[in-house]
Hints:
It contains 16 helices and eleven strands. With 556 residues, it is an alpha+beta fold. Among the domains are: 235 residues, no CATH class; 98 residues, PH-domain like. The strands form three sheets. Strands 8-7-6-5-11-10-9 form a seven-stranded antiparallel β-sheet, covered by helices on one side. A two-stranded antiparallel ribbon has the order 1-2. A hairpin with an 8-residue loop joins strand 3 and strand 4.
Amino acid sequence: MAVLLENSLNCIWHAFYALYTNNNTTMNTTIDCNTTTIQQQVVPKSKLKVLTANIGILLDLYGVERGLDHFRSTSTLSFQHYVYYLKCEVFGALPNTLTASELRQYETRIAEVCWLVCRKPYLCRQNPIFTSESVYQIFRIFCVFGETDQHKYGNEVRLHPDEAEWLARTLATSLGNSFDEDDWRHLTESAGSMKLNIFIALIEARCLGAGDSSSSTTVTDIVPITEAVNDMYRTFIQDVIKKGYLFKRGYLLPTFREYWFVLQPSELVYYKTRSEKDRSGVLVLDTASRVEVISTEHGHKFMLSTSMGQFELSASDHMSRQQWVSAIRLAVQYSGTSVGYQRALAYKRRQQRVTKAASDLNRQQQLIEERAARQAAEGRAGILEAAAKDEAKRAAELECVRTTLERLLEEETQARRDEETVRALQARVLSEEWERRDELERLQNEQRALLELERTKREQLESKQREAEERLKLLDEERQQLDRQLRAAHSRIQRSEESREVLEARLKAAAAPHARDVDDRIGVRRAQSFMPSTGRERPVLLEVRSATLRRSSNQH
């Protein structure tokens, strides 16, 4: 696939050049860029076979290195011949239907293999500031924006001064450092287009404060530097167009929940936190995807329609919503192309530089012609005019020029003073902004901690409520069981009462025949009450009553 080869060409050149320098240990540290040196940059096929085999394995192609033995009759290959072999035998076997995500994955794998081959001279530096991972990420960024110019620099990948200045300014801005454009342009004017090692040294010296004696980079500064380089890597290599917080309506519950969204040309990924470690989902974008603003009185909502369905999103304010809508439309526009968003921008800037160079060349040619015509006219006028008049005129012109130059010099001095004052004010404002940002981050962390505490308390209360409900249910069951037992006891008592009444009725019935006898006995007892009685005669009635009761019970 020609696009994949073109995107990986600069990485492959670095690996090829590393094999070339390892094979030529007696070469000078500075390389001549004439035609003879370009023709001498060859690498043995035995080393290229290893590199080709690794690239083929990454592309699921096996045995592609065997053709090198039959490719040309020489034992070495130049970079042009090696690229031609890769184009025909390796990348030509890939399908042309690879998506943008698959292309990025293949590019990353090829870059990692090439980095393993060429990383030694870039990692073994004096007093390095960047970590090994950051140097690799800068290597990837350099390969994306670097240019190969065979006519001027030979087979060397170099970075244009404008691209280098833009990357350096981006890194310095991410770290909150000031960027001296005049100093940088002075360096790039003398150095011109630069190689990777020079670019790394310059941004370490000019963007990180390593070359300034008044500021030193400590170990604690490595973390923001690494984060800044990683952010540039995600933006330029992984084609991150925009990222930030958005609200998304859920599938099951029709409520909005806040996520951290990362937009790329082919997909919109959202995470639970800003650390981008816990991935919640992905919305695949294609050329048929659409985004429309929803007009509502409350909230700043918009609808994203993809092949996966429709998703309702919401931003924090109107400006944020407009930015997200524009960014998503831009991602949809580049989702159907094989060239990444950042590469397309680089191609546009490169084309603009070519157009500007052609325009400058035409303008210079016109100036040269105008200057020649003016000089010819001045020559003819000088011949016609008198020498005295010409001298007087020249003296007056020189005096006027001197006065003008003095005035311009004074204005330039005042402008420099004003510029220094403005820079000092900007530095103070920037420092205040950083302090406010730190305070806001602290408040945000406190709010998150409070929310987490409230969530924990709510879960505990819910757990206690469930336990109370379970206990209430058990008590209700026990109450029902006791009610059943109480009803059974009442039933038994009622039956006992009924049995007792029946027994009393039978006792009364059994005691009726003896009622007269009892009355007679009572009369006798009343008659005898005036006579003394002994203890043996007194319990006769009790014995009769006991005998009556025993008889009644036997009948029952």
